[in-house]
Each structure stands twice: as structure tokens, then as C-alpha cells.
Amino acid sequence: MATFDLLYQGLKQNATTFISTAADSQQMLYSTINPAQLGFLERLWFAYYSYLRDPVLATGIMSFLLHELVYFGRCLPWIAIDAMPYFRKWKLQPNKLPTAKQQWECTKAVLLVHFTVELPQIHAFYPLAASVGMKTYHLPFPSYLQMAYQIAIFFVIEDAWHYFGHRLFHYPYLYKRIHKLHHTYSAPFGLAAEYAHPIETLVLGAGTVCGPLAYCWWSGGDMHILTMYVWISLRLFQAIDSHSGYDFPWSLNKFFGLWSGADHHDYHHEKFIECYASSFRYLDWIFGTDKKFHAYRKLQAEQKRVAEQQAAKGGKAH
Ligand SMILES: [Zn+2]
Ligand SMILES: [Zn+2]
Known about the structure:
The protein is an all-alpha fold. The protein has one domain (about 35-285). The protein has helices at about 1-30, 40-50, 55-80, 100-130, 145-170, 170-175, 200-220, 225-245, 250-255, 260-270, 280-285, 290-315. The longest helix has about 30 residues, at about 100-130. The termini are far apart. Residues about 15-25 have low confidence and may be disordered. This is Fatty acid hydroxylase superfamily-domain-containing protein. It comes from Leucosporidium creatinivorum.
């Protein structure tokens, strides 16, 4: 009985300490915030940071989970599309479909990099973010407009970083030692977006992270980590979609001509040359690294037109 009493007292003590510490941390983190004035997402944010009490840990866990969920969540529809023959007519290299074994091997390799290379980086992100004044647990959230223009800036910065870094990785010395791994799949698929050597992940990934950090420093801390999360999610969508191997009539590049899309990056994997940028087409155009790409797509379109003409003639003859 005495043991039970001791245990009970101990648990009660722990619970009281936890509740009072949570209240302390709420007081510490959000002393000037009235939860009643917050929106739904902001209240979740408030509850999450108050519950975990440690902004470094809370931010690390959220960043890692977000990355995993968005990455694999975005890959799932592409795995399903690869399994459905209906979509084959929009596959850029229709005769090269990824096998289940390739997709599984790729998933394992990507997970290994996520846990060994990206997890420590994600955990190290908080002090970096704090050093440039980025808001993390802070509330309220920034406006949609502010988030939108900051993300547009990050897209431009990352694209330029990626263009020059990627071109550098195609120098034979670096290609053989580092970038060749990413080119394992000459007909890429969504999961292959982050299939790369750890050094490549580190160097090219810096374009995604350092742009916002530099911007935040330059703006005197006028940026929230939520903007960073939306940006990283969109950047993951961009990277996975451009490796998907599909160019649909409703793909973004059909409405926004500057957007690179799978059309652009699939060629880079097929031919191992040109189309070095990530999100946009203008740098490849300015530096003349898209000439063979345009000539090839033109030739393909011409061949398709001739084949369709012949098929129509054949149809009439019957
Ligand atoms: Zn490459
Ligand atoms: Zn690629």
C-alpha cells in the first residue's frame, strides 16, 4: 500500500509539475498573446509549442515530419499514375517505366539520406534561424501576401543557385564522384527527386535553406518559419513533379511558360546534358543550355505529327 501511495504521490507531483511548467512556458513564450484572438491554425501552433515547451525540439520535430510527409505524400500519386496505363500517353519516355524494385531501392536510399544527412541539418536549423531573427514559435502568423512575395523571391534565388551548382556538378571530376548517382535513372520518377549523393544534397539543398536565411537576415528578421515550411513544401512539389516523367496538358508549364516542369528536367535525365535549372527556364535560355533540348522536342513533335498523319491515311485506306 505504501508503495502504491508513493507511486500515486509521485505521479501527482509529476503531473502538477508538468502542468505548471507548461503554463510557465506558455507564459514565457506567449505572455502577450490572447489565444481567443488567434485563428484555428494559430491556436494549434500555440498549443503545440506550449505542450513541447522546448522551441528547438518542437521546431526540429515539426520540420522533419513535414519534410517526410510532404515528400512521400507527393510521391504517392506518381506511383499510382505509373501503375495506370491510361496516363501512359503523357509519359515523356513511355517505354521506360520504373519497376517496383527500383522504386523500393530508391525509397530506402532516400530514407537513409533523410535520417543521416537531413535530420542533423534540420535539427541544426533552429539556431541558424534564430541567429538571423526568424520567427518560429511566435504568433500571429504573417499575412498571405507577405508569405507569397517572400516565397517568390526564394524560388528565384534557389533556381539560380541550383543552375550554377548543377552545372558545376556536371564537370567530369565532380560528375563521376558525386552527381552520377542522381543520374542513375535516365527516365526519372517522383521518388528519385532526392536520390543523390549526400554532398549533392548538402550543396544543392543549401539553395533552398540559405536563400530564406539570407533574406531573413537582410530584412532584419521580417520572416516567419511558417513561410519557410510553405516554401519547402512547394519546392518539394516542384522537385518531385519535375522528376515524375509526365508532361500533362494541364501541367503548370502549359500556363506559365517560364516554368520548367518535367518536360525540361526529364530531358536532362534522358540525355545527361542541358536544362540545369530547377524551377524556371530563363537561365538555361540566357546561357544557351537549352538549344539541343528545344531541337529534340521539335523533332519529337514532328515525328508524332507524321506518325499521326500516316495512321489517319492507313485508317482511310481500310
Ligand atoms: Zn544533372
Ligand atoms: Zn534530377
